[in-house]
């Protein structure tokens, strides 16, 4: 339907006219999503094109048409190598959106590309290949085969691909090590804890070496300690491999911990898309503000955002911290030294933070210190809006 808007993301450009054969480049997005809709219900197809409906709330659309607009006019890019988190309350459209990426759910309207290739134009065979080898999904219910050993469960995806027995078992054995299940390869899933089972699910997805891992609330059934463990595991795997990940969660602390960028959904729309710091420091509206109200700001907001210009003499004294250092660390440095700290990049003092700036961050009185970047402006809810147009890397 609608053409892709001219690079609404400020980040990598949309490959709307890229030929399918193009080799992906480092800066190209993996997924590029433009004006995507998923409407469930009778005559769903008429909703996205009907301007008398598109401006209405999800509840109003339902009342008028009997349809549920689960994803509404969503646009974003997933950059190569990032952890892209889709967050929102139950029913906000997270699962529907992520399932649309590989057409496990068929989008109603919009444009969707992976590495420049039009996903909506893929035939069944190509789609199967997409799901098996390019964008593997890790589900909350791990879907393990109960009568198979852990090793054979991990090898299962390779078996479907037609990889020979010896090779798939060798590759699966490597994955067992990688996800911390060494020695458990011959057990059955029923002989494992929930966390261990989730690791098997993760290893199975990793074994096929997909370009993107799609996680649908994978850890929500786990108890908090094991959940934390698994989050660390994902972060570690991501650091080691730089694999692109799309991660659904309704848990804000999980999103803040693992996300390079977070798309916050409400009623099928993305209400804000940004780094954890941008979302916590500059919520797009009252809904987001409410969402992040209890976040310990000093653990998310960096000294780059908290700093003020150095006064005469200040640029030459004081402890030096990198711009990405979180305020919590700066508090410790200021408390120890009793004076301001400098924010230094490449040997240059960018600014300073003192007691007053740090307390303002903790108290939430630091509204829009990032003025001058686009961090303080109202974001385009559909676009991948990041301060300075940069995509944070882990
Ligand atoms: N097959 C379907 N038919 C009709 N409506 C659906 C269907 N699947 C999802 N929906 C509706 O679409 C909306 C979004 O659902 P979705 O499952 O994507 O939300 P979610 O954010 O993933 O929720 P949760 O966190 O509870 O899984 C909800 O109103 C849901 O009832």
Q: In the CATH classification, which architecture of the domain at 80-107 and 122-291 applies?
A: 3-Layer(aba) Sandwich
Helix content: 25-40%
User: Would you identify the regions where 5 or more consecutive residues have pLDDT less than 50?
Assistant: 1-21, 369-394
Strand order, biggest sheet?
6-7-8-3-9-10
Bound molecules: adenosine-5'-triphosphate
- Kindly report the average pLDDT value: 83
> Within the CATH hierarchy, at the fold level, what is the topology of the domain at 80-107 and 122-291?
Rossmann fold
GO molecular function, one term: ATP hydrolysis activity
Region (Disordered): 1-28, 369-394
Keywords: ATP-binding, CBS domain, Nucleotide-binding, Transport
GO biological process, one term: response to osmotic stress
In summary, what is this structure?
The protein is of the alpha/beta class and 394 residues long.
Description:
It is built from 15 helices and 13 strands. The chain has 394 residues and is of the alpha/beta class. Among the domains are: 198 residues, Rossmann fold, CATH 3.40.50.300; 74 residues, CBS domain Like (Alpha-Beta Complex). Strands 6-7-8-3-9-10 form a six-stranded mixed β-sheet, sandwiched between helices. The chain has a four-stranded antiparallel β-sheet with strand order 2-1-4-5. Strands 11-12-13 form a three-stranded mixed β-sheet. α9 links the parallel β7 and β8. α6 crosses α7, α6 runs parallel beside α8 and α7 crosses α8. The longest helix has 18 residues. The N terminus and C terminus are likely disordered. Adenosine-5'-triphosphate binds next to β2 and α4.
């Amino acid at each position: 339907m609608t053409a892709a808007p001219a690079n609404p993301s400020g980040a990598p450009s949309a490959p709307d006219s890229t030929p399918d054969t193009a080799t992906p480049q480092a800066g190209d997005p993996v997924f590029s999503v433009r004006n995507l809709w998923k409407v469930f219900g009778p005559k769903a197809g008429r909703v996205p094109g009907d301007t008398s409906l598109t401006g209405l709330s999800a509840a109003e659309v339902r009342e008028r048409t009997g349809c549920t607009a689960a994803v509404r006019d969503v646009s974003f890019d997933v950059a190569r190598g990032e952890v892209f988190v889709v967050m929102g309350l139950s029913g906000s459209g997270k699962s529907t959106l992520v399932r649309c990426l590989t057409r496990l759910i068929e989008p109603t309207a919009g444009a969707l590309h992976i590495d420049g290739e039009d996903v909506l134009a893929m035939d069944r065979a190509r789609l199967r290949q997409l799901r098996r080898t390019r964008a593997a999904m890790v589900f909350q219910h791990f879907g393990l085969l109960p009568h198979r050993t852990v090793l054979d469960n991990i090898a299962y995806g390779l078996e479907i691909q037609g990889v020979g027995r010896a090779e798939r078992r060798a590759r699966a054995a490597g994955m067992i090590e990688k996800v911390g299940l060494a020695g458990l390869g011959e057990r059955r899933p029923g002989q494992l804890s929930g966390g261990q089972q989730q690791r098997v699910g993760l290893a199975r997805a990793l074994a096929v070496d997909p370009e993107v891992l799609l996680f649908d609330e994978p850890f929500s059934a786990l108890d908090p300690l094991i959940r934390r463990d698994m989050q660390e595991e994902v972060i570690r795997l991501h650091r080691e491999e730089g694999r692109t990940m799309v991660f659904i969660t309704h848990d804000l602390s999980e999103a803040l911990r693992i996300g390079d960028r977070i798309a916050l959904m409400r009623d099928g729309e993305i209400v804000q898309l940004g780094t954890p710091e941008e979302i916590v420091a500059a919520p797009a509206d009252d809904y987001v503000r409410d969402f992040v109200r209890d976040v310990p700001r000093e653990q998310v907001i960096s000294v780059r955002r908290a700093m003020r210009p150095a006064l005469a003499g200040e640029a030459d004294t004081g402890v030096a911290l990198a711009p990405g250092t979180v305020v919590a660390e700066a508090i410790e440095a200021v408390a120890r030294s009793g004076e301001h700290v400098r924010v230094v990049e490449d040997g240059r003092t960018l600014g300073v933070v003192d007691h007053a700036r740090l307390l303002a961050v903790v108290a939430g009185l630091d509204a829009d210190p990032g003025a001058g970047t686009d961090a303080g402006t109202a974001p385009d809810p559909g676009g991948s809006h990041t301060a300075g147009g940069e995509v944070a890397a882990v």
